[in-house]
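I have been asked to look over a protein record a colleague put together. What it holds is a sequence and that sequence's fold in token form. Please read both lines and tell me whether the tokens look consistent with the sequence. I do not need a full report, just your reasoning and any doubts. This is what I was given:
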Amino acid sequence: MKTAILVPCYNESATIGKVVSDFKKVMPHADIYVYDNNSTDGTDEIARNAGAIVKYEYKQGKGNVVRSMFRDIDADCYIMVDGDDTYPAETALEFEKLILDKKADMVIGDRLSSTYFEENDRPFHNTGNKMVRKFINTFFKSDLKDIMTGMRGFSYEFVKSFPISSKEFEIETEMSVFALTKNFKIVEIPIEYKDRIEGSESKLNTYQDGFKVIRMIFSLIRNQRPLFFFSIATLVLLLIAGIHFVPILIKYYSTGLVLKIPTLIMIAMVVMVAAMTFFVGVILHVLKKQHADNFEHHLIILNELRKKDE
């Protein structure tokens, strides 16, 4: 059974050597892959000297790196961890056991239930993590503790079935929603988190990347729960139409005159658009159900092919 440690990296020269060394010590049987994403500080050479297999992804962004890692590498268990030395290598053994024992398709390293809020001194990051968690758990009827953690374990089926669309740091949110909507087995393990050491800088932009994550959430809600999304849009349109129609109706009952004919025409058009919006949601809901059935069939075929290879 093969385990692959996946480390996406961009300018992590201050920490990557220790990350690779820690994982080699804890999991000497695993292959450690460091994917360098256009680093300019010698991250790749440090990782190679520490014993990692170094590969390159030239499209900038963590999502692009993860896409390459998932496409390139075949393994029975995948453990992905950031190269900033904020996650404990020792926890990876528990991740590996859950994946190889088929008890989980995705293992989430839960920082937020542990030391994250004590170690992380960036208040907007803390608030953002809580907001994203609330959004996802509300709209996808889940109870995940940490949506955006950088340490996760994956099964072969998850990795080879995950259609990555994110290019940057939204990738963690996309992973969580994909696992929820495709009924993969998710296990969360509280892990100790420590903040970056001095000289190691975060690549996250609080506001810019936060906006991208929120945009990604709305996109995922539209794609994964189309009936809900378009029903809300329908209600908003009907509310707008109703607000403008009520005064006209009141005036009609009091005077017997129909006033504001152009407004009535616009109201009728808005109501027609609302009806079409609702039926778009119904159609997409049916198509999504068919896609879900096809995805389950895909997983069956994937498992059969793996058994033949073994």
Remarks:
- The chain has eleven helices and seven strands.
